[in-house]
């Protein structure tokens, strides 16, 4: 028996010739790409929060969506949470996604204290565990919402009040327990307010110490309970705080190194956050690959004319192709996947719009994956890079990288060998044209 919220119970693959708006044109889960099923490469996941908890507001206006589980429609909060779970798993099943993700506050009502929050969470985990068993949908990752409630207005782990730190730590424990019970493949920490609004009231060194302490506690607890998943940190540069400490991949890596966690923690990279940091999505993925901390991705996009994180469904094949190019070059996902941390526009009011947004996003990712695989099979980009750096494989290149030579000897070598280099073209236009052949 279904709730009747969605007009269709299963989205099918109909191929590129289809004009059916509720069918996949490119996402064929069984298509073999580089020796593996497309579904296994992409590992799609739906975000519980944007799809079912977000009311359609923006910084200048409130709720536009009318959902039967919203407080203005249902006064029994636990019954509303259970109805929301029913609808969520109907959508996961209709789309055929293998995974979903959640914050604790997405799935359970807010209680009056920590104990009530935990009771509500545990009751809803019973419900969700049963639905996972019925549908076969798995948990990609769980996380704690440590940013929405007013108690977190000055941060969670970085809060000047140690009681907020303690409440946050206890909340993380309850969410890690839930993720472990549901056999989640990762646990994510996103410091939504781990940053500052003004330096006039901020002790940077102290807050860094507190944040490092919290993450070490998380890693210790992972090992204590035998959680086999990956701990992920999600970089984000700003919004809502002026400057957040997990600014980008490079900043997160520096933080991990500073606190001895670079072997324990990886990153969950979001396209929209990369843009806010002044980077491209592929830059952040390439950086994470170079540093050995690539874990998972949130697939969305920002409106390039807006100054905040708009979380729109992806629709740019070249951007997505380059993203999967670096993911595939890194060996593909292990515990990570492609989570749609994307939401409808506030004027897209109908339940069918939720399906359409995900269908379009999944098709774009499928097109991007196929283009990325073709780029790898052709090998042109890697060949161009290898040729550009081939001098470093020469005797001179190897000598310059060794500990047997210092600046004085290098200067003597330049004089003795009359080294007088001429610039070599980077051939950017050729490579851009080459890329466009595949997308």
Automatic annotation (TrEMBL):
Residue sites binding Mg(2+) 1 per the record: 234, 270, 298, 341
Cofactor list: Mg(2+)
Enzyme Commission number(s): 5.3.1.5
Record's cofactor remark: Binds 2 magnesium ions per subunit.
UniProt keyword annotations, A-Z: Carbohydrate metabolism, Cytoplasm, Isomerase, Magnesium, Metal-binding, Xylose metabolism
Active-site positions on this chain: 103, 106
GO cellular component terms attached to this protein's record: cytoplasm
Top enzyme class: isomerase
UniProt binding sites for Mg(2+) 2: 270, 273, 309, 311
Xylose isomerase-like TIM barrel domain sequence ranges: 122-283
Catalytic activity: alpha-D-xylose = alpha-D-xylulofuranose
Subcellular location(s) of the protein: Cytoplasm
Subunit text: Homotetramer.
Protein's recorded name: Xylose isomerase
Organism: Sneathiella chungangensis
Chain's gene name: xylA
């Amino acid at each position: 028996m279904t709730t009747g919220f969605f007009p269709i119970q299963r989205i099918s693959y109909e191929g590129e010739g289809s004009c059916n708006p509720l069918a996949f044109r490119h996402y064929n889960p069984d298509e073999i790409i580089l020796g593996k099923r497309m579904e296994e490469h992409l590992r799609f996941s739906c975000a519980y929060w944007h799809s079912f908890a977000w009311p359609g507001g923006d910084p200048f206006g409130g709720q536009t969506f009318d959902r039967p589980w919203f407080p203005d429609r249902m006064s029994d909060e636990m019954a509303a949470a259970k109805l929301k779970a029913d609808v969520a798993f109907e959508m996961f099943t209709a789309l055929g996604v293998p995974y979903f993700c959640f914050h604790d506050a997405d799935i359970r009502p807010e209680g009056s204290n920590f104990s009530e929050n935990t009771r509500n969470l545990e009751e809803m985990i019973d419900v969700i565990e049963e639905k996972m068993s019925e549908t076969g949908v798995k948990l990609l990752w769980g996380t704690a919402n440590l940013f929405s409630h007013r108690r977190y207005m000055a941060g969670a782990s970085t809060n000047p009040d140690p009681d907020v730190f303690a409440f946050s730590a206890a909340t993380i424990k309850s969410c890690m327990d839930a993720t472990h019970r549901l056999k989640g493949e990762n646990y994510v920490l996103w410091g939504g307010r781990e940053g500052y609004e003004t330096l006039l009231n901020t002790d940077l060194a102290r807050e860094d110490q507190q944040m490092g302490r919290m993450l070490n506690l998380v890693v210790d607890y992972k090992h204590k309970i035998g959680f086999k998943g990956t701990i992920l940190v999600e970089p984000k540069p700003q919004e809502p705080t002026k400057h957040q400490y997990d600014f980008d991949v490079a900043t997160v890596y520096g933080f991990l190194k500073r606190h001895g966690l670079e072997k324990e923690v990886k990153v969950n990279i979001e396209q929209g956050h990369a843009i806010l940091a002044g980077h491209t999505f592929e830059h952040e993925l390439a950086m994470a690959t170079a540093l050995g901390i690539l874990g998972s991705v949130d697939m969305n996009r920002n409106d390039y004319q807006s100054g905040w994180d708009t979380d729109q469904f992806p629709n740019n094949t070249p951007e997505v192709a380059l993203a999967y190019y670096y993911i595939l070059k890194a060996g593909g996902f292990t515990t990570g996947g492609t989570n749609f941390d994307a939401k409808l526009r506030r004027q897209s009011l109908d339940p069918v719009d939720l399906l359409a947004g995900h269908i379009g996003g999944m098709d774009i990712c499928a097109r991007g994956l196929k283009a990325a695989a073709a780029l790898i099979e052709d090998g042109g980009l890697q060949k161009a890079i290898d040729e550009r750096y081939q001098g470093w494989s020469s005797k001179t290149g190897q000598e310059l990288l060794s500990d047997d030579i210092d600046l004085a000897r290098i200067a003597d070598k330049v004089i003795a060998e009359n080294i007088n280099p001429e610039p070599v073209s980077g051939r950017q236009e050729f490579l851009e044209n080459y890329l466009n052949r595949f997308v």
